[in-house]
Write a structure and sequence with these properties.
Blueprint lengths: L13 E5 L3 H9 L7 E5 L7 H9 L4 E2 L4 H5 L6 H10 L2 H10 L4 E3 L4 E4 L4 H14 L3 E3 L4 E6 L4 E5 L4 E4 L1 E4 L11 H4 L5 E6 L2 E4 L12 E9 L5 E8 L3 E3 L1 H9 L1 H6 L3 E7 L6 H14 L15 H10 L13 H12 L1 E6 L1 E3 L6 E5 L4 E2 L4 E2 L5 E3 L13 H17 L2
Parallel strand pairs: 1-2, 1-10, 2-6, 10-22
Antiparallel strand pairs: 3-5, 4-5, 7-8, 8-9, 11-19, 12-15, 12-18, 13-14, 13-16, 14-15, 16-17, 20-21
């Protein structure tokens, strides 16, 4: 009796990835290659991984050396319910190892940010691209999606140029859109969008004398937004339009929605001495009066502030050049204490931080399975990166979300 043979037919699965940014390309690089499988990335522009290219001043802040996930979660103003699971599946340590296995070494800087040792973002782009090519990934440019339709066998994707594509599985990795109506093709398939607002931005302080100090940086300051609970600390940079630096960017991320509701018009209170209190500062000044009373206030800067900033603060407080610490009037002392601990600046408007636009908002997390990044509404539809309502402060955290969510989606899609 002839032997029985069981033939198993694997039909060629067609996988479409919408968006050739960090998440889309990293997902494409991590979908295991199978014979006959077709993975196509559709990109609306003519370039891939543009944000990777410009991030970190062209060096690419790949991730952060925070390896404790509960601590890592504190760096994300929104998205913790999903990140509690996704970050365990693919951690910063996994990111470092992934690139290391492909010949890219990362280094840690003093503030914990991690960059390729080449200090060149192209190193990261080339690494991911090479992995994509090894997996026979197709990339098609100038394809802007206008509609996504669920079919009996998968999904039908319509593009602005009139073309279309049928896929068995789809990964949405478009990044964050600045306007809610740009998500229309996702709401039309039933998904809910948290309204997008900018997350990382600097503060505009128009026509204010402080901008004459452009370029002055303070290693550690505390920013508080008057009338709110928003407060963050970190390095602060004075610019020709206002203020920037990690302290400002963290404040903008945490307060993205609240500051948008205020139409970016509010008062920023700066503690130039970071965490020094009124009691501590008064004691320091009294000690200066007793022990160094003959020193000129302008020449004796006991707080290690940049010289230009110290002179600016004294000028604003009406402290003249010839005044000595021992002769500092009580009224001027009180003004100086206020200026050092609660310096007030009227913010009117924002400026996007360089080209690293980050959006607060996107596909609501309750509609996504964090174990697979798959839509709870449509099996076979996945999401990764900034398309979902997750965003982090500056420091490599947004890229880590991109790598983590993309890796999970890629492994799920392959099943």
């Amino acid at each position: 009796m002839p032997a029985a043979f069981l033939f198993v037919y694997f039909y060629p699965m067609k996988i479409a990835i919408i968006g050739a940014g960090a998440a889309g390309c990293f997902a494409a690089a991590n979908i295991p290659y199978r014979e006959g499988q077709e993975v196509t990335v559709f990109e609306k522009t003519g370039k891939v991984m543009q944000k990777v290219k410009v991030s970190g001043g062209g060096r690419c802040n790949v991730t952060h050396d925070c390896f404790d996930v509960p601590e890592l979660l504190t760096r994300y103003p929104r998205g913790k319910q999903l990140l509690r699971k996704s970050l365990y599946h693919f951690t910063p340590a996994d990111t470092i190892q992934w690139f290391k296995e492909r010949g890219v070494q990362l280094k840690v800087e003093a503030d914990g940010r991690m960059f390729p040792i080449t200090d060149d973002s192209q190193t990261i782009i080339d690494c991911i691209w090479q992995q994509m090519m090894q997996h026979n990934v197709n990339v098609i440019y100038h394809k802007s999606v206008t509609a996504l339709t669920k079919t009996d066998s998968g999904f039908h994707i319509s593009f602005a140029d009139g073309s279309s594509y049928d896929a068995d599985k789809v990964l949405i990795a478009t990044g964050g859109y600045p306007k809610a109506d740009q998500y229309k093709w996702l709401t039309e398939v039933g998904h809910t969008i948290q309204s997008p607002v900018p997350s990382l931005f600097t503060f505009n302080i128009p026509n204010h004398p402080v901008t004459e100090l452009m370029g002055v940086a303070v290693p550690m300051a505390t920013v508080k937004i008057a009338g709110t609970k928003l407060t963050q600390s970190g390095p602060l940079l004075i610019t020709h339009w206002g203020m920037s630096g990690p302290a400002i960017l963290k404040t903008s991320a945490v307060g993205a929605r609240e500051l948008a509701e205020r139409n970016y018009t509010f008062t920023a209170l700066i503690n130039w001495l970071n965490d020094v209190t009124d009691v501590e500062l008064k004691e320091t000044i009294h000690q200066l009066r007793r022990e160094q009373g003959k020193q000129l206030v302008q020449h004796k800067n006991p707080f290690e502030l940049p010289k230009r900033l110290w002179e600016y603060l004294l000028l604003q407080c009406g402290v003249k050049e010839e005044v000595r610490w021992g002769d500092l009037p009580a009224a001027a002392q009180n003004k100086l204490i206020e200026a050092l601990l609660r310096d007030s600046y009227p913010v009117k408007g924002k400026t996007t931080f360089k080209e690293e636009f980050v959006t607060c908002g996107g596909v609501t997390l309750s509609e996504i399975d964090p174990q697979t990044m798959q839509s709870k509404l449509h099996p076979g539809l996945h999401f990764a990166g900034e398309t979902i309502d997750v965003d982090g402060i500056t420091g490599g955290y947004n890229f880590q979300n991109a790598w983590s969510s993309a890796y999970i989606a890629a492994r799920s899609i392959a099943l």
